[in-house]
Design brief:
The structure is a single chain. The protein has seven helices and six strands, in the order βααβαβαβααββα. It is α/β, with parallel strands linked by helices and about 250 residues long. It binds 3-methylbut-3-enyl trihydrogen diphosphate (IPE) (2 copies) and magnesium ion. The site of one 3-methylbut-3-enyl trihydrogen diphosphate (IPE) has 11 residues, from β2.
Length: about 250
Amino acid sequence: MSNLSAAPDKLPRHVAIIMDGNGRWAKKNKLQIAFGHRSGVETLRGIVRESSDIGIHSLSVFAFSTENWTRPDEEVRALMLLIEEFFNSQIDELHRENVIIRILGDRDNLPDGPRKAAERAELRTCDNSGLHLNIALNYGGRADIIHAAALISCSVQKGDLSLSQITEDLFSDFLSTRGLPDVDLLIRTGGEMRLSNFLLYQSAYAEFVSTNALWPEFTVEDYRNALGQFMSRDRRFGRRDHSGRNSEGEKNA
Ligand code: IPE
Ligand code: IPE
Ligand code: MG
């Protein structure tokens, strides 16, 4: 893999990851699903460290979706316990690494244990200045958008905002990711090609990388490879090819 630090200005500022494939990994290794999720937490630690080292501005990871409540009770309980354990066991180290933790999603409907552990982590790291690590828990992209729309409506109703002030930038400021750049690179492990309701508004122009690696076996090298793919993409944002040349290399009229 090419040296990523050679072109820091080409790195994505905001990377989002749909950490998928824990269940299939557990099955493949004849383990209980909870072990798959546990192994996934190990992968996450490595990717967070690498993101800090490389100098990524924001990393958003999908840990539990609003749809994941429909899984068997035993799996949901194991996941909630793991989330609580993650915050409690990793917080000192994450704090030392200068990481700023933010929880995305509806925290009020999380069980007390993981909610309190997550909120303690947010509070403890809020004055740090390193990587912004957003952990999506009970998160849904549509719910994020609806929540922003409701907050904006309320401000309009109170007279604090006028309709003409509602722009894309203003809308972004009411989303859970307020203050952070849009997602530049969206990585999904486990081979699926869908968003599964993750960061819908924020990913409008994200570059997508899907890898067949299951999340517990996703390596730092795979991550660097995804970043390299991003850096070689031509992001046009709807513009005509900026080189002004067509596919045959001839100058456009
Ligand atoms: C992703 O892994 C983790 C969560 C959704 C919490 P999965 O558990 O969805 O893994 P697969 O897709 O079943 O392999
Ligand atoms: C998306 O994975 C949610 C997380 C990674 C937390 P899912 O496994 O829940 O998504 P689907 O069911 O394949 O769309
Ligand atoms: Mg899955």
